[in-house]
Amino acid sequence: MGKKVKVRFAPSPTGDLHVGNIRTALFDWAYARHTGGTFLFRIEDTDTTRVTDEYIQAAIDTLKWLGLNWDEGPEVGGENGPYLQSQRLDIYAEWAQKFLDQKDAYHCYCTPAELEATREAQRAANVAPGYDGKCRDLSAEQIAAYKSEGREAVVRMRMPDGSTTFVDEIRGEVVFDHKFVPDFVLVRADGSPLYTLAVAVDDVLMKVTHVLRGEDLLSSTPRQIRVYQAMGVKPEDYPVFAHLPFVMGQDNAKLSKRNGEVSIAWYREQGYLPEAICNYLALLGWSPGDDRENITMKELCELFTVEKVHSSPARFDMKKLEAINGDKIRALTLDEFLNWSLPFLIKAGVITGTDSEIALVKAALPIIQERIVKLDEIPQMLKFLFVKDFGVEAESVSKITDSLSKDILKRSVKELEPLSAWNHDSIEAALRASLIEEMGLKPRIAFTAIRIATTGSTISPPLFESMELLGKEASLARIAAALTL
Ligand code: GLU
């Protein structure tokens, strides 16, 4: 029987989590759920100059918001904690000491200037850059001399000659010649551990079975395997590696602000739903085996296998994400849609959140659910219903002050005033009969004037439904006011 799967997501939150991080988290999560395994969440915060408490909290909140619940990690705990690397420094120090004792690692006293001079010489000689092994076998006298100069040592791992071979679940066999993997630093002079030490020690101690992560970390794999060896882990117990293809921007360049916004916080503010982000990111480098584009989280868990991850880079396509977001918005129940909408309306200052406002929002949402792509469009769409000092937006005023528009508005008041039943059918019937049939106007011309007069803008939800929601009194008052412009 195979080992129970344990997958980890281990970001270093040096900023808000971005699209690439979340795609990794999503695949990790989906793989754990697909296999009935454990999803472990670990914060790699040993670089205290770049990781902040705010970013750590934001990473936790983002995962929660996306619904990527974890079984072990911050807040939920677990038997392999703590899950913040900054709380595990003693553990890394002990292992580094053990590696020194075993002679797998050594103290290196080279100064930054000496290291730079070595690199310079290597560049000049056209050989692969990297540590040249100068401090590998220092004598006791040399060490004493360096110490008396006040030099501080880093701890370096000794890379033996030869190569490291491992099978990547996505790329197949990968070989790293150690000529290109020089001895590497495990612990800085100030005693703080480097990523390579902490990540490898934690993956072993936390019993991680699968490392699914971004392709940018492929080259650190031979170093991590070296740490496993020094820890005495048997090859059959190494985690399985699977390096996910890069996510490129829309123009095939690296993903950046310019070609596909990167921070998940931004998507959240724009009104993308977590299910839409997850659905879209799931398709970035993976496919369910057919060409469907609408996938629920449940289906993703059922279908996700590493074999179906592509090895070529995926390209970010904002239009596709928007289309998926629109689909997910349309699929919401009215109550769900209401819950998503209210914070956007309150934040934009359109409503304060009273019961009567919420009731009106709820009545209005069905007429915009088919039309919006992102939740941040809602305030603009519905503000005409709530605004206290209504006025036509400046750029539309000139569109309703010509004589034809005045005729249209006058005629509509005349037709609408006597209506006893005020609903979108009766409003539409009255306006069509008079403006289109009798006056012979094109609907676009006739209804644009009324739209501007009643909603203040050329862009609004469907006109007759909007007027029904606004009510007879307010609709007529607004048309009357427009006639005075
Ligand atoms: N902490 C690393 C990073 O955010 C990733 C660690 C890993 O997945 O191995 O870049």
From TrEMBL:
Alphabetical list of Pfam families matching this protein: Anticodon_2, tRNA-synt_1c
Q: Where is it found, in Gene Ontology cellular component terms? A: cytosol; mitochondrion
MF terms in GO: ATP binding; glutamate-tRNA ligase activity; tRNA binding; zinc ion binding
Q: Which GO terms describe its biological process?
A: glutamyl-tRNA aminoacylation
Question: Which CDD domains does the record match to this protein?
Answer: GluRS_core
Q: Which segments of the protein form a coiled coil according to its record? A: none
Report the EC code(s) recorded for this entry.
6.1.1.17
Q: Which residues form the Glutamyl/glutaminyl-tRNA synthetase class Ib catalytic domain?
A: 4-322
Q: Please provide the record's keywords in A-Z order.
A: Aminoacyl-tRNA synthetase, ATP-binding, Cytoplasm, Ligase, Nucleotide-binding, Protein biosynthesis
* Keyword Protein biosynthesis found: yes
Q: Where is the Aminoacyl-tRNA synthetase class I anticodon-binding domain?
A: 343-483
Please state where this protein is localized.
Answer: Mitochondrion
Family to which this protein belongs: Belongs to the class-I aminoacyl-tRNA synthetase family. Glutamate--tRNA ligase type 1 subfamily.
Q: Which PANTHER family match?
A: GLUTAMATE--TRNA LIGASE, GLUTAMATE--TRNA LIGASE, MITOCHONDRIAL-RELATED
Q: Which HAMAP family match?
A: Glu_tRNA_synth_type1 (MF_00022)
* Name of the molecule in the record: glutamate--tRNA ligase
Q: Native species of this protein?
A: freshwater metagenome
